[in-house]
Amino acid sequence: MKRGNKNRIKKDPPVRVIKQEIRQTALAGGNFADKVNAYRDQHAHALFSSLGRLVATPFISIMTIAVLAIAIALASGFYILVSNLQQLTTNLETSNQISLFLRDDVSDAHAKKLVDSIKLDNNVKSVKLITKEQALEEFKTYSGFGVAINALATNPLPIVLQVLPKNALNDKEALSALLKSFQQSPEVDFAQMDLQWVERLQSIISLARLFANLLSVLLGAAVLFIVGNSVRLELHNRRDEVVISKLVGATDAFIRRPFLYTGFWIGFISGVLAWFIVAILMLILNNSVEELSGLYGGNFHLLFLNFTETIVLIFLSSFLGVLGSWAVLFFQLQYTKAS
Fold first, then answer.
1. Which region holds residue 2: left if phi is over 0, alpha if psi is between -120 and 50, else beta?
2. Between vectors from CA 239 to CA 233 and to CA 242, what angle results, nearest 5°?
3. What secondary structure letter does DSSP report for 29?
4. Averaged pLDDT, 238-254
């Protein structure tokens, strides 16, 4: 080796750091505590040095993290959209009731006993009894034919039972079986429920959930490729350092460590930034959604990521960053060995 190259290597701070860390590991001896301390110091140095390299190139780092944050925010946003859609369908479930029109010869006392027996069914959430008098008063109030109704000698309206099934939007087969059992009841003259409406709503929810899952997979793959490409460029820029590290005895695990931490920082910061993006969008939409819900007489509130979902979001983004880095490093280091 030429003298100029020797002087350049001696003056190169990364090479001196590599030699010092390798020597520190070798001198740890048989003392387990010393080995643990040396291992901890190496990881701490790789952790903060990788963060320092990201800070040293702010424009490239900001552009990469911004793109990843938008991708993760899109996936999180569609997840929240499906969650709020499910909450909305829970509120709409009250309109998916079964109306049982009883026979004219069924008395109020008999109808009350029938209500008590229906409540014992595990598939029934609640039952509401509407007597003939109540039905007549509602018809007078909302139909506008009160004068014509008063001219009738008898009340033509039947007793009605409004049955609200459990999990009405999740199990169409159970709903059909429950409706059929009511139709076979001797007290029931006619049972009515819009099963097509239930089927359409179930299809919409399933389609939205499938779309959100597919979008999350695609955006997760995009995060892997973007982080992998960023780490590949970083590895290319530090190729001389990697070659010199191998010459002085560094292992592949030692070489991979700072790049894996770089992927971790990129994924972690992107996940945190994505959370803030989604939070700001939810705050912007919250007042408008509540105003719209109030106009329809509802009490709908937007759901946001809870603490567990937030931790999962940040963990997954960090994991994808590390996974993308590891995949690129695995193939790149194998190529370095071959060359």
1. beta
2. 125
3. T
4. 76
Q: Residue 26, CB half-sphere, CA atoms under 13 Å: how many?
A: 10
pLDDT, tens digit, 9 for 90 and up, residues 59-114: 988 999 999 999 999 999 888 888 887 776 665 555 567 888 888 888 888 888 88
144 φ/ψ sector (left φ>0, alpha ψ -120 to 50, else beta): left
Which ranges of the chain would DSSP assign to H, the alpha helix? 3-11, 13-26, 32-56, 58-92, 108-119, 132-143, 146-150, 172-183, 195-237, 239-247, 252-295, 307-338
β partners of residue 190: 101
Q: Tokens at residue 114, please?
A: 């029938």
Q: How far from 42 is each of 18, 46, 95, 274, CA to CA, in Å?
A: 10, 6, 62, 30
Q: Is the pTM of this model over 0.85?
A: no
What is the token pair recorded at 25? 């590991």
Cβ pair 293, 300 in contact under 8 A: yes
Select from 115, 108, 110, 165 the least CA-distant residue to 134. Answer: 108
Q: Are 103 and 189 in contact (CB under 8 A)?
A: yes
Cα dihedral across residues 325, 326, 332, 333: positive or negative: positive
Q: For the chain, which residues make up each domain, given as ranges?
A: 3-90+202-338, 97-193
Measured between alpha carbons, how far is 95 from 194 in angstroms, rounded to an integer? Answer: 10
The tokens for 198 are 């239930």
Taking domain 97-193, whether its CATH number is 3.30.70.3040 is answered by yes
Given the structure tokens 């001219």, which residue do they identify? 151
Spatial contact of 54 and 265, defined as CB atoms under 8 Å apart? yes
Q: Which two tokens stand for residue 203?
A: 């299809």
DSSP, res 249: T
Residue 27 φ then ψ, to 5°: -85, 0
Report the alpha-carbon distance of residue 244 to residue 121 in Å, rounded: 76
